[in-house]
Amino acid sequence: MHIIGMWITRSVEPLVRRMAQQFPAVLVTGARQTGKTSLMRHLYPRASFVSLDLPANAEAARTAPDALLEGYPAPVIIDEIQYAPSLLRHIKVRIDQDRSAGRFLLTGSQIFPLMQGVSESLAGRCALVSLHTLSRTELLAAGRGIGEDRYVFVGGYPELHVGADPDLWFPAYLATYLERDVRNVLRVADLPEFNRFMRACALRTSQAVNYSDLARDTGIAPNTARKWLGLLQTSGVVVLIEPYFSNRTKRLIKAPKLAFLDTGLAAFLAGFRSERELAASALAGAFWESHVFGQLARQAASRADAAPILYWRTASGQEVDLVIERAGATLVAIECKWKEQPGTSDSAGLRALEAAEAGRVKQKMIVCRTKATYKLSDGAWVLNVTDALKRLALR
Which domains does the chain have, with CATH numbers? Predict the structure, then answer.
């Protein structure tokens, strides 16, 4: 991400380089405007470059794929591959003729036809990397001081840290997303209705998904709500956090929990117009939980850490906001609290999970807005996001 001549180092860069040294192809996916193209052009400035965002190139990729590929010698960055997923079959043929590493450097939005094409054509030949919007850690490391409340409100879309006005940028971003992804993939005729659906989702970030409620509030059928939420998920806007359960734990609520990957987009959709307004609202805790999840997901993506991030809730109301299931079936239990000094009353869910999963919970954390790390009498650590990420990275 370039900012006035200065590159903001993305934490995923070493992973991309390592994969490009081992696989013939690397595909960087993510939501629109996360910096995928800038990342690849920064890492590989001497590579050939073709963007399928240009209609003429996309048409050539569909009608004369071999001629197109001949015109761009390897290594080649093929940008926006989702506009011609059929090109993947032709890339496969070339890889099978020459399996040299790093020949094809691809970017694309994570929509279903693209991922289906990769799994069918490039299995075992292509490494997949997820690129999220800028994390607060990346901004701070680059000397871009930003308070946490401000980050939760604005989010991490790179353009917003170049100087773009969020009040102008987010409407333009949504218009592009609606026109190019929603209309093209789902053939949705009523885009304002889908826009209302997105706003209803934003107001439910960090809540268990209830398709009937979403459908009722938007005026659509529950099956339509399910399909539309699936598009938000596959295009990198939201994540559905699955519940954690084991054979020893009974009567668990099994609906997934909705989380926006970028809290800035969620804040805009929810109608907040300042960080102060968001911080004073009843949704501050839910947005904080989504923020914590988002920073954890960014760190995991940069390390190719496939450990699932789940949540735990019983029918009787005991819950833990986030549960990371590590290798060996050990658990990291995390409560997210929008306060500065949590106490043992805030770790009740952590103790309940520890009791239910005897011997498996190896770390208990309350991630909050504290300035100093401390330990509660029940063994739970109270940390801010930065210190929690450091502790998790040490495993």
Answer: 2-130 (3.40.50.300), 144-395 (no CATH)
